[in-house]
Amino acid sequence: MSAPTVAACQHAIADCDPAANVATVRTRLAGLADRVDVAVFPEYALTGFVADDRVSDAALARDGAELATIADAAERAETAALVGFVEDAGDGLYNTLGYLGRDGERSYYRKRHLWGDETDVLDAGDRRTVVETPVGRTAFLTCYDLNFVRESAALVDADVDALFVPGAWPAVHASNWDLLLRARALDGVRWVVGCGRTGARTLGDPCEYAGRSAVVRPDGTVRARLGRDERDLVAPLDPAILAEQRALVGSVGESRE
């Protein structure tokens, strides 16, 4: 049996324009390679973000038409999808990832560590999320969450095989994004897939985004990487490589014994 394949679908985002972003994600899903098991999109892929009242107007409900549209597009592409959006939860706004499984089930993760002016308009999540995906037990982090080693340590205890990390990392700090993706793969002995926003902020203060989506092996080396182009990074996540590296390191699972 061939190894499961993941696509990091790197693209630019229109801030506070869900209709345009939903159309972009639908197009990217329709254009995927013949066999992609999971498609990972950047942080805020469906809504973009700005730290003022406009973000409330752009926020989406979990059961809204936009998520249903993406779920239908993913089903047509015969893939699972991980998409980010500003979530209107009724009692607050969150930076949320929605995992749309191939079986129709959905799981959600709310960013636990907000960055900069996100704290002005959003609430932080308080739970970690681990789901079964085609690549095994998989957890999610969002952008700045990468900086917190305790998150990685907790996911080692959760026996996570892969980590999906949507981001919107400023280009000026691209080297930190590169380093942290590798660190989270190595300290957890797991596959890491980072999908970065590219292009520039379309509302608010100017910002160029790094892109640099990457697939990182469980030994911390980069399997494949993009620059700032809008394209897909498709790579297999071979479970044999994961098993080999864990056998070599011998540390994963010790804390659970």
From TrEMBL:
Keywords tagged on the record: Hydrolase
A UniProt-annotated Pfam family: CN_hydrolase
Keyword Repressor (UniProt): no
Signal peptide start-end: none
SUPFAM superfamilies: Carbon-nitrogen hydrolase
Domain CN hydrolase: from-to ranges: 4-239
Record-linked InterPro entries: C-N_Hydrolase (IPR003010), C-N_Hydrolase_sf (IPR036526)
Molecular-function annotations in GO: hydrolase activity
Presence of keyword Nuclease: no
Protein name according to UniProt: Hydrolase
Organism: Halarchaeum nitratireducens
Taxon lineage: Archaea, Methanobacteriati, Methanobacteriota, Stenosarchaea group, Halobacteria
